[in-house]
Amino acid sequence: MSEGSLxxxxxxxxxxxxxxxxxxEKLDAEMRRVFDVCHSCRRCFNLCDSxxxxxxxVDESKTGELDSVExxxxxxxxxxCTLCDMCFMAKCPYVPPHEFDxxxxxxxxxxxxxxxxKGEIPTFGQRQLTETDxxxxxxxxxxxxxxxxxxxxxxxxxxxxxxxxxVHRDAELPKYTSKPFSKRAAPPVNAEAPAHGRKAVxxxxxxxxxxxxEVGEAARRVLAHNxxxxxxxxxxxxxxxxxxxxxxxxxxxxxxxxxxxxxxYIDDGWDIIALVPSCGLMLKFEWPLLVPDNEEVKQLxxxxxxxxxxxxxxxxxxxxxxxLNALDGPVSVHIACHARAQNMGQKGAQMLRLLxxxxxxxxxxxxxxxxxxxxxxxxxxxxxxxxxxxxxKAKNNGKAxxxxxECPLAGLHIAQGMEKGQSEGETLPQTVPHPILLVARAYGLxx
Length: 447
Ligand code: SF4
Ligand code: SF4
Hints:
Blueprint: H1 24-41, H2 50-59, H3 74-79, H4 86-91, H5 104-117, H6 124-130, H7 132-141, H8 143-150, H9 158-165, E1 199-203, H10 205-211, H11 213-225, E2 229-233, H12 240-244, H13 248-267, E3 271-274, H14 277-290, H15 295-303, E4 304-306, H16 307-317, E5 331-334, H17 337-340, H18 347-352, E6 360-363, H19 380-395, E7 402-405, H20 408-420, E8 430-432, H21 435-442
Parallel strand pairs: 1-2, 1-3, 3-4, 5-6, 5-7, 7-8
Bound molecules: iron/sulfur cluster (2 copies).
One iron/sulfur cluster binds next to helix 4 and helix 5.
C-alpha cells in the first residue's frame, strides 16, 4: 500500500443531487473499494464500533477477503457510525487529495441517504427524536411534565418511550428549560473591556435554546463582561439530526434558510458564534459541501466561530477583561469529536488554561454518544462501551473536581458512564455542560 498524502486533507462536495449518488450498484462498488483499502490498512480498529464490525465481517468470511462478504451485511457497519468524523480527520492517510480518495464518514452518509430515499430511515422513533425544534417548542411549554416523563428510572414512561420511539430506557436524556435561551434578556455590556467594539450573533442552536440554556447564558455573560455586544438569533436547527438520517435535501434547505437570515448581520460586521461543536461543524464545513454554489452559505461559513475559539481569539488579540479567579479544583475537559473535526486545535482546553492556577486534564477521545444515535435502544450499550476509556480518564484517578465536555450531549453521556462505573464510597466529579460555564464561574458571573 502506498504512503499517505502529505498534503492537507480536502473534502469533495456531496453530490446529493446527482442520480448516481443513489444508484445502489455504484454505491456497493464504492463501499467495496473503500472497505478493501480499510481492510488492508486497519489503522482505525479502535476508533468506534464500525471498523471492528467491518474487520470481523472480512475475517469471518469464507475467503478472509471482502469478495465473500455479502453486501447486505454492510448495513451493520453503517449503523455503528455516529458520523463523528474522527477516522477522516485524525487517522486516515488516504483522504483526498490522496489517489485512494477515502472519505469513510461521507460514504456512511451516502448509504444513509440511499436508505432515506427508500424510506427505510428514519424509523418512527428516530423521526420523533430528531425533530428538535418541534420537540423543544412543545416541551418548553410543559417543561416540568416533559422532564418528569423523560427522567431516567421513571418506570411508567421510559419503558413506553422505549417501545414507541426506540429510546433506550436507561439512556440519560437532556432536560428542557421552560425559558428558551433566545427569550432571555441581554446582560449589560462592559464598555471598559479591552474587546469593546466586537459584536457577535449567538446562533443559539436547538440544544442551548431549549435544553441547556445555561450554556448560552454563560457565553453571553462572559462576552458582555469582555465588552462584546451580542444578539441571540435562532431561526431553526442546523439539521445535524437530519444529516444523521441521510435526509440531505432537508439539511440543504436549512443551510440556505439560516444563511439567508444571518446574512444581514454578517454584512453589518457581526461575527457568528456557535455554542455546540456539531452545529459549528455544520455551519463551517458540512453546509458548504452540501450547497457549494450558495454564496450566503460560504459567507456564513467564513464568519462562524466556535465559542471557545472566539474567547481564545479575544484573549490573543485584545486580552481578556479582568476579574478571573481560580476555580476550587482540577478540571477534566473533554474535546468533542466535532470540535476536533473543525481543525482549530483544542480550543476548549486553551480557553480553560486562561483561568488562573488551572489544573487541567485533557481527554481527547470519542465519548461514544454521537447525537441522537447513542440514546437509541440498539446503540446505547455500544455507546457505553466505546465511551469507557473516556469515563475513566475524565475522573483522572479521582483528582477531577469538574468534568466539562464541549459537547453537552457527550457531557451527559460521560456523567452517566462515570456513574455506572462508580465504586462504593467514590465521589464523582461534577459535570458541567460546557467549559464556558467554568469561565463564567471564574468571573463570578454565574453560580
Ligand atoms: S465517522 Fe466516527 S463513528 Fe463513523 S466510522 Fe469514522 S470514526 Fe467511526
Ligand atoms: S479510514 Fe483510512 S485510516 Fe481508517 S482504516 Fe480506512 S483507510 Fe485506514
